[in-house]
């Protein structure tokens, strides 16, 4: 099955810094989403982005489907950005479930 | 997005017992799923809850252990049967097919299960 690799596994930032999280996948995809799981466990959908670029406030995401990777940018990080960021994909031609990566744990220090 | 209510939010159960988790959505959705998140791990799909028919289980999960119901387009239950400490996890209800957000996956707040 498809492999989803996220990097880095852990990231510590000072408040105000910028960061880039990466998601590599081993096969073509027809669905890619980014999620944030806050320290209390709630999962929030950040982006549905199988290709192209989207922005939402301080967050933006870019997926280059032909090169099988996606990037999540966080600018001017805040302590509330702390938590785990997951990338999830669904392979092209399938109507099946999303496969989640192992996540990037982000800690933003005040 | 929709409001996805999941209950209980947490429970502590004895080995050998069963727990039923409920998921209620405030609007009709196309797909409902149940995920498991073991401590410190990523999310693994247990099954797709199909309205009016048997759920579709992923490899490693069976109906006898995780019976699922979905009587209508807004409600589903997951039962964790004959529990053991290895079942201690967060169980998450998720949905797609919400109005204009058709492909986006949304999650309930989860059920933290501890089995003693």
Structural description of this entry:
The complex is a heterodimer of chains A (110) and B (116). Chain A is mainly beta and 110 residues long. Helix content of chain A is 0%, strand content 59%. Chain A is built from no helices and 11 strands. The termini of chain A are far apart. Chain B has no helices and 11 strands. In chain B, a hairpin with a 2-residue loop joins strand 7 and strand 8 (75-80). The model of chain B has no long low-confidence stretch (mean pLDDT 93).
Mean of pLDDT of chain A: 94
Largest interface: A-B, 16 and 20 residues
How widely separated are the two ends of chain B? Answer: 36 Å
Beta-strand share of residues of chain B: over 45%
Report the major sheet of chain A. Answer: 6 strands, mixed
Question: Spans of chain A of 5+ residues with little confidence (pLDDT < 50)?
Answer: none
Order of helices and strands of chain B: EEEEEEEEEEE
* Spatial shape of chain B: globular
Radius of gyration of chain B over alpha carbons?
Answer: 13 Å
Number of DSSP strand runs of chain B? 11
Chain-wise SSE layout:
The complex is a heterodimer of chains A (110) and B (116).
Chain A: E1 4-7, E2 10-14, E3 19-25, E4 29-37, E5 43-48, E6 52-56, E7 59-64, E8 69-74, E9 83-91, E10 99-100, E11 104-109
Chain B: E1 4-7, E2 10-13, E3 19-25, E4 31-37, E5 43-49, E6 56-57, E7 68-72, E8 75-80, E9 89-96, E10 106-107, E11 111-115
Parallel strand pairs in B: 2-11
Antiparallel strand pairs in B: 1-3, 3-8, 4-5, 4-9, 5-6, 7-8, 9-10, 9-11
């Amino acid at each position: 099955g498809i492999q989803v690799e996220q990097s880095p596994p852990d990231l510590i930032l000072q408040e105000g810094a910028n960061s880039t999280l990466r998601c590599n996948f081993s096969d073509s995809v027809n669905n890619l989403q980014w999620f944030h799981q806050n320290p209390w466990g709630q999962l929030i959908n950040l982006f549905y982005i199988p290709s192209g670029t989207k922005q939402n406030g301080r967050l933006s995401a870019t997926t280059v489907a032909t090169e099988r990777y996606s990037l999540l940018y966080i600018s001017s990080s805040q302590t509330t950005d702390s938590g785990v960021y997951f990338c999830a994909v669904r392979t092209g031609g399938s109507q099946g479930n999303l496969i989640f990566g192992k996540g990037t744990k982000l800690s933003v220090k005040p | 997005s929709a409001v996805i209510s999941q209950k209980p939010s947490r429970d502590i159960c004895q080995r050998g017992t069963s727990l039923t988790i409920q998921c209620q959505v405030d609007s009709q959705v196309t797909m409902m799923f149940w995920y498991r998140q073991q401590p410190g791990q990523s999310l693994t799909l247990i099954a797709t809850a199909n309205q009016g028919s048997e759920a579709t289980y992923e490899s490693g999960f069976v109906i006898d252990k995780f019976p699922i119901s979905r009587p209508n387009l807004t409600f589903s239950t997951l039962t964790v049967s004959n529990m053991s400490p290895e079942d201690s996890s967060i169980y998450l209800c998720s949905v797609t097919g919400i109005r204009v957000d058709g492909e986006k996956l949304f999650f309930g707040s989860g059920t933290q299960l501890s089995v003693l």
